[in-house]
Design goal:
Elements (H helix, E strand, L loop, with lengths): L33 H24 L5 H20 L11 H23 L5 H8 L2 H12 L6 H24 L4 H24 L5 H15 L4 H10 L2 H28 L2 H4 L6 H13 L5 H22 L8
Helix pairs in contact: 1-4, 1-10, 1-12, 2-3, 2-8, 2-9, 2-10, 3-7, 3-8, 4-7, 4-12, 5-6, 5-7, 6-7, 6-13
Length: 325
């Protein structure tokens, strides 16, 4: 989103952030035409709907089977984007980055997210996963050599206090369990790892190829649950199968495509802020379709988590300051 949602967004290329398209005046400078706004709206709604669809299916479909089914459908759908022209294949160490991205973001992320939503509501899960950019900022100081600033420290503190408040909300009123909360945190962590692995790849390969290969690797990770998926397909009704297909086609294949369209025509640093709307859209859809309302403390903790992420963004504009200073 860059947040993931249940179908997390690809990390923007460095060349896209804050860039201005001189061939199309207004693009990248804050002006968005109606097509970009439509694409952005489609992306946000589809990503939000994924949390609700997962929550709905979680009552009858095991997490592993749902992960494998979604990734199989997404891999098939994305293959149409990849093979409509001559693909660009990874070289050398790019394969290792793809393996990290595929195992973390597409494999473990989906397993953790789907199991989390068997335990806690869709809106709460979406709010917790929103701390993904905060974890990206933290890991970047370790693996990318980015400097630790006061704003970054403040953002991490506020964000994780928000998660603790959400966990307290569930343990206090019995409306869910803290295991689900920490599984959602695991999903956010693996999303962050996937973003860091994907970032250099997008400078050397087209986005569809990166996403498709990572999706296929995630599918392989989930193969141990193939038996569960076969059982689900055998006994499930048409509605369940439709929702599994929906997750693979719409929030994954289509939403990734519309998001790439938005990033190519707008300021990535600004448009990614719109993904903070995903948890609230997810909560509204869950309230309308599933009659779910998160515990009151979820909104307090979720708000703090988002403030924490915003504080880490301030650190990128402010003068860097090491902790020792």
């Amino acid at each position: 989103m860059t947040t993931l949602s249940a179908g997390a967004a690809p990390a923007p290329r460095e060349s896209e952030v804050g860039s201005v398209d001189t061939a199309h005046p207004g693009r990248g400078a804050g002006a968005l035409d109606w097509r970009v706004l439509v694409a952005m709206s489609v992306t946000l709604v589809l990503w939000a709907s994924a949390f609700v669809a997962i929550r709905h299916l979680g009552r009858d479909v095991p997490a592993g089977a749902l992960s494998l089914g979604r990734l199989l459908v997404a891999s098939a759908a994305l293959s149409f984007l990849v093979f409509r022209r001559r693909p660009t294949w990874p070289q050398g160490r790019d394969w290792w980055l793809l393996v990290v991205c595929g195992i973390g973001w597409f494999g473990i992320y989906n397993l953790a997210l789907n199991e989390a939503e068997r335990r806690i509501d869709a809106g709460t899960t979406a709010l917790i996963v929103q701390i993904g950019p905060l974890i990206v900022a933290l890991l970047a100081t370790v693996f990318l050599g980015e400097r630790l600033t006061r704003w970054l420290l403040a953002g991490m503190l506020v964000g994780f206090v928000g998660v603790a408040i959400i966990a307290r909300g569930f343990s206090g009123d019995g409306s869910g369990d803290t295991v689900g909360v920490w599984l959602a945190v695991l999903a956010a962590v693996t999303y962050a790892i996937g973003v860091l692995a994907q970032k250099p790849l997008l400078g050397r390969m087209p986005g569809p190829e990166v996403t498709w290969i990572a999706c296929v690797i995630g599918t392989v990770v989930c193969l141990p649950w193939a038996g569960d998926l076969v059982e689900v397909v055998t006994v499930a009704d048409a509605s369940t199968l439709w929702w599994i297909a929906y997750l693979g086609i719409f929030p994954t294949a289509i939403a990734f495509t519309t998001w790439a369209y938005v990033l190519s025509r707008g300021d990535a640093g600004k448009v990614t802020l719109t993904t903070f709307l995903v948890p609230f859209i997810a909560a509204l859809i869950a309230w309308a379709l599933l009659a779910e309302v998160p515990p009151a403390l979820t909104f307090v903790g979720g708000g703090l988590a988002i403030v924490g992420v915003l504080l880490t963004r301030v650190s990128r504009r402010a003068q860097p300051m090491t902790v020792s200073e």
